[in-house]
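Need C-alpha cells for this chain, all 366 residues.
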Amino acid sequence: MNPDQFQGPALRVGVVGIGWAGQQHLNAYSNSPGVEIVAVAGMEEELLHSLQATHAIPNAFLRWEDMLELEDLDAISVAVPTFLHAPIAIAALERGLHVLSEKPLARTADEGRAMVEAARGAGRVLDVAFNHRRRGDIQTLKSIIDEGGLGRPYYAKASWLRRTGIPRLGSWFTNPELSGGGPMADIGVHVLDYALHLLGEPKVLSVSATVHAELGPRGRGGSARFSAMSSEHAFEVEDFASAFIRLEGGATLLIEAGWASYREKDDVLGFMVYGTDGGAELVAKGSPSAPVGQLTIFTDKDGENADYSPESQPGRGHQAVVEDFLDIVRGGEAVWGHHDGSLALNRAEIIDACYRSAREAKEVQL
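Here are the C-alpha cells for all 366 residues:
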C-alpha cells in the first residue's frame, strides 16, 4: 500500500487491551499507512507504558472510559476479555466511533444483538476479527470451491484441537460469566466462521451439540503456555465440544473445538469437505503458528485419479483484518451499513444454540 494514496487526514485510532490480541492490533495499525495511533488503554501499567513508547502513542489510559473522552478519535479496537466487548463497543459506537472487536462478538447473542443495534443506530462500522479466514490456505480452498472445483459440497468437518491448551485455570477464560463458554466460544467460533465462509455462508437450520469437561476439572490439560494448574478457582466451562449442524440445501457440517484431549501433541486446525465433483482436506499442524497447512484436492479426470496439492501463500492474519477494517471505514457511509456486525451475530446465535443443545440434550432449531 502506498501512503500517497491517502489524500485526507490520517485516521486516528485507539486500542483497548494490551494482551496478545491488543498487541496484534497495535502492530497492524503501526504498519498501515494513513493511520495515527493516538491512544492505548490497559490495566497492566508497566506494559502499557512500554507499548506506548514502542509505538510512539501520545495518550495512555488505565481506564477505557477515559480514552473514549478523547476528541477527534475515529475508531477503536476492542481486544479485552469477552465480558467487556459489549459495554466498550456500545459506548464507543454511541460516541460516533467505528469499532473493530476481537472474537467472539460477545458472551451471548443477546449482548451481540445490542452491539449490532448500537452500530445501526449510530451509523458506524462494527467489525469482528476473524483472522483465520484470512489464512492463505483457506483462501486458496475458498477460490477452488467458489469456482466449482468440488461441485456442490454436501458434507464438511472443521476442527481446532489442542492436547494441552486450556487457558489458565481461574482466569476469565474458564469462567462462563466472563467468557461466555469454553473452547466452543473461544476457538470454536473461529472454526465455525471459516467453515461457513468456505461453504458460501449457507443458512444454519439446526444444531445438535455436546460439551465435555473431563481434564480441566482435574487440573489436567495445561502446559507451559496454557496452564490449568495452581488455582483456587473452579473449572466452570467445557474443555471439548462438538456440534452436528444441518444446513439449508441438505448439507451438513461437523464442528470440533478442544482445548485438551489425549491426542497428538501439536495443535491441529483442519477442514475436510466432500463435494459432488471432488473433495478437499486441509491440515495445519502447529496451528495457529503454522503459516501454511497441507491442502489436498481430491478429484478425477476421465475416470482417473487427478488429486493435487495447490500451493498457498502464508496468510496475513490481524494485518489483513485491520487493513480490511480501515478500508471499510474509508469507504464512507455508502458501505458502513453493510458492516454492522451482523455476520458475527450470526456466529453468536449458532454458538448459543450449541450450548443450549448441549444443556438440553436435544437438537435445537434456529
